[in-house]
Amino acid sequence: MRLYIDPGTGSMLFAIVIGLIGVLIYFLKGLLVKIRFLISGGKKSSMDAKTIPLVIFSDDKRYWPVFLPIVRELDSRGFDVVYMTASKDDPVLTCEDYPHLKAQFIGEGNRAFAKLNFLNATMVLSTTPGLDVYQWKRSKYVKYYVHTMHAPEAGLPMYEVFGMDYYDAILLNCVHQEEDIRALEKLRDLPAKELHYVGIPFMDEKLKKVRNMDPVPEHERTILLAPSWGSNSILNRFGSSAIKALLDTGYHIIIRPHPQTFQSETEMVEALMKEFPDSDQLEWNRDTDNYPVLARSDLMISDFSGVIYEFAFLFDKPVICALQDFDKSKYDVWWLDTPAWKLEYIPQMGAILTEDNVKNMKSLIDSVIDDKQYAENRRKIKKDVWLHPEEGAVRVVDYLLDKYAELTKTDDPEEGGKL
After folding, report:
1. Listing from the earlier edge strand, what are the strands of the sheet with 52-58?
2. CA–CA distance from 160 to each of 129, 130, 157, 412 (Å)?
3. How many C-beta atoms lie closer than 10 Å to residue 357's C-beta?
4. What is the CATH number of the domain that holds 113?
5. At a CB cut-off of 8 Å and minimum separation 6, what does 325 contact?
6. Where are the alpha helices (H) located in 106-170, listed in sequence order?
7. How does pLDDT run across 256-313, given as a tens digit for each residue?
8. Is the pLDDT of residue 25 over 60?
9. Angle at 342 between CA 337 and CA 344, to 5 degrees
């Protein structure tokens, strides 16, 4: 007879095992430090030399563009960084452009977290939520955990519950994020995190890319359907009806599902791709680089994906979003009485797709493209959400080096950050 353990129980058992192993390792490490201290006659232990100045942790290869401008800026200042990734095909593993970067594949899933849970580092920078909530535990030998954004959303509470609670610091790109974080801290009686405004380094990078792109040739009106994944996504909520309505417009249609869709919702997306195969009018897109698709699209239809902001802010183009009856229950926003800024901003930038108006897709698309008020709103919101444009990487690294100097009492942080 084969035994089955559900994912929730498996996660709990893993956490218990890791906890027991951690107690043992911490005890042995502490004992080793004491022995070395006694042997050295009370001098500072050489264990400190094994402390990594800065670790960047990425749980997926798609976040390399988020960290790339930060890595480049750190390298230009001669500060060493160890980049730990949970993707064995992460582009960082083959990157040889930065001598102060050391990249490591640390395993997938629980294997990665097991290594992180016993990490010896001064600081960890990550964009992964859920620190100290599930498998990823704070290491006793890490002094400071810093979170940075991976999408230009206006509200951090759109993370799943407790996603940011146990970081020491969060790097922000707009005032609304600070308001929401402080409200959650008060509700949960959490110590105040350090909040620092830096802008959005990866958006700065993408802005340069857009400026350097070749002009898009004249083409027929092209509509991009770019849903996120999960129960609130367009493909789950509207299914084939949305695709049929798009095809009925006569416009060229591009469908670009979120990469996670192909892993977590394989059956659903494969059924839709079979029902609506590629044709002269319809194309399914899975290119690694989404910018050529964004550039040749005249309007985007999405739901709660961060790509909405990239399309609106970088390409200055209109959007339609499916946000009606959005289920907030599993997100931090459910705890707050204040508006969910991400949900408040989107209707100002474009129309909301509903069960009723999906039948009138062509007129809806045409009206949004022609509406000058939507265009004015998205430009205003861009200024509100994206503070310090084109300064992000410099501001992030300024913060990290200052914090490193504070944590290590090093007068010259660039000299101190050596492996």
Report:
1. 101-105, 81-85, 52-58, 121-126, 142-147, 169-172, 194-197
2. 8, 8, 7, 38
3. 15
4. 3.40.50
5. none
6. 110-116
7. 998 889 989 999 999 999 999 999 999 999 998 889 999 999 999 998 777 888 899 9
8. no
9. 70
Q: Give yes or no: residues 168 and 250 share one domain.
A: no
CB 113 within 8 A of CB 131: no
> CA–CA separation, 43 vs 48, rounded Å?
12
Q: What is the pLDDT of residue 23?
A: 46
Q: Which band of pLDDT confidence, cut at 50, 70 and 90, is reported for residue 33? A: very low
User: What is the arithmetic mean of pLDDT over 65-90?
Assistant: 97
**Type of residue found at 322:** A
Strands (E), 12-126: 52-58, 81-85, 101-105, 121-126
Backbone angles phi, psi at 225, to 5 degrees: -100, 110
Distances from the Cα of 373 to the Cαs of 327, 350, 378, 385, in angstroms?
Answer: 28, 9, 9, 18
The number of C-alpha atoms within 13 Å of 73 and in the hemisphere containing its C-beta is 21
Q: Are residues 342 and 360 in the same domain?
A: yes
Q: How many domains does the chain have?
A: 2
- Domain range enclosing 300: 214-385
Of 270, 186, 262, 192, give the one whose Cα is nearest residue 228: 262
From CA 417, how far away is CA 79, in angstroms rounded?
5
Q: What is the CATH number of the domain that holds 276?
A: 3.40.50.12580
Asked if 52 and 145 sit in the same domain, the reply is yes
